[in-house]
Amino acid sequence: MMRRRTTLLAGCTALVLALGATACGSSDPVSAGGGAKALAGQTVTVAGVWSGSEQKNFQKVLDAFSAKTGAKTQFTSTGDNVSTVVGSKIEGGNAPDVVMVPQVGVLQQFAQQGWLKPLSTTTQQSVDTNYAPVWKNYGSVDGTLYGLYFKAAHKSTVWYSPDALDQAGVTPPTTYADLLKAGHTVSDSGLAAFSIGGQDGWTLTDWFENIYLSQAGPEKYDALATHKLKWTDASVAKALGTLGTLFKDKQLIAGGQKEALNTDFPGSVEKVFGPKPQAAMVYEGDFVAGVAKDQFGKTIGTDANFFPFPAVDGGKAPVVSGGDAAVVLKDGKNAKAGMKLLEYLATPEAAAVWAKAGGFLSPNKELDLASYGDDVTRATAKSLVSAGDSVRFDMSDQAPAAFGGTKGAGEWKLLQDFLRDPSDPKGTAAQLENAAAKAYKG
Fold first, then answer.
1. What is the pLDDT of residues 392-424, one digit of tens each?
2. Structural domain count of the chain
3. 188-217 burial by CB neighbour count: b if 16+ within 10 A, else e?
4. Burial bucket for residue 374 (CB in 10 Å: 0-12, 13-18, 19+)
5. Are residues 257 and 346 in the same domain?
6. Range of the domain at 78
7. Tens-place pLDDT, residues 242-269
8. Which residues of 255-403 form beta strands (DSSP E)?
9. Are residues 216 and 255 in the same domain?
10. Which CATH number belongs to the domain containing residue 358 in this structure?
11. Would you say the pTM of this structure is higher than 0.70?
12. DSSP state, residue 303
């Protein structure tokens, strides 16, 4: 459980561990560089996928680091293809010092290519103290910690319009069977139950992963995520069949399968929270709230709320996460200062900067929940941190990009095909195994 209150002594202890502080209680805590303004005159270059409001809010974190250390920072948005952009920068002799990596598979790729520096002892101590072990595991390759998870996503949240559910007389369900039953009740009231953004294949992988984790359990989830279990295992076809029950029910999906395949993720949120609602619920991560609030002016907790993705077939309710891990490149011109940035990012102080700005969850269990701006975000953050080691990282993000992260190919395309025609779960499982085998071999 995350503590709601942090005493001055505990706060100083955390800072001593994370920043190497020697003076506690002063009005200007000792900087991450080991002394006030210790990095003055130095510049730390950072690359990551973030743009728009995410980039703007992360810049606030970088500015706070600058204020503490005197270092300047320079952020470059890479777009979605981090691996290609960073690889080309390394080859061109212009490697950034720090990269915010959005996929476990990419972090592993960087480490295996020898691009990364192991994290400092100070950062490792912070991770051991402030994070559940699962986050250390996902940041490590062959037992060496390379990645610090700074920003997390909670991908086991079903977002809904309270008015729509109230009008249908429906309360948030706790089992998948009740979810479909509630969906039929909603649709009988004149509004489709679910909006699905099938044009973006990654949303479909998230549906599958939540069902699979709850139905098959964490051991099989871990084995499938690393391809130690083949996709032809009976558990995969079973989960696909469970998902197919929803996909083939035209009464439940706004516009049916065809419209779902022509709806991207923002469009799926619009169908629930936009000016002309077409559905009552949309499944996706906590970031749905940001779209509902920023694009459609919804008040989170009043006009938009969530319930946990329900348990499937008697299993435990799943907690699937994603996140962005900070890594330090060996070839960066100022990797030493980059490592000091990670020491700062490992502190609850750094996480609080973005938490206050919104659109952010931290896996750092020492971050005071009061740092978040609304009760719904606090509830989401509490759910993520309280899950501890039962959290499982997004399966497709753990896979090679050719299978789990490429538009029009691999898992994304095959699940889109399955949405179009969910009649043959075993056949789809066989196709997934064929694509996975090629990607993992490559």
1. 999 999 998 889 988 899 999 999 999 999 999
2. 2
3. eeebbbbbbbbbbbbbbbbbbbbbbbbbbe
4. middle
5. no
6. 31-146+324-386
7. 999 999 998 999 999 999 999 999 999 9
8. 279-283, 305-308, 320-328, 392-393
9. yes
10. 3.40.190.10
11. yes
12. T
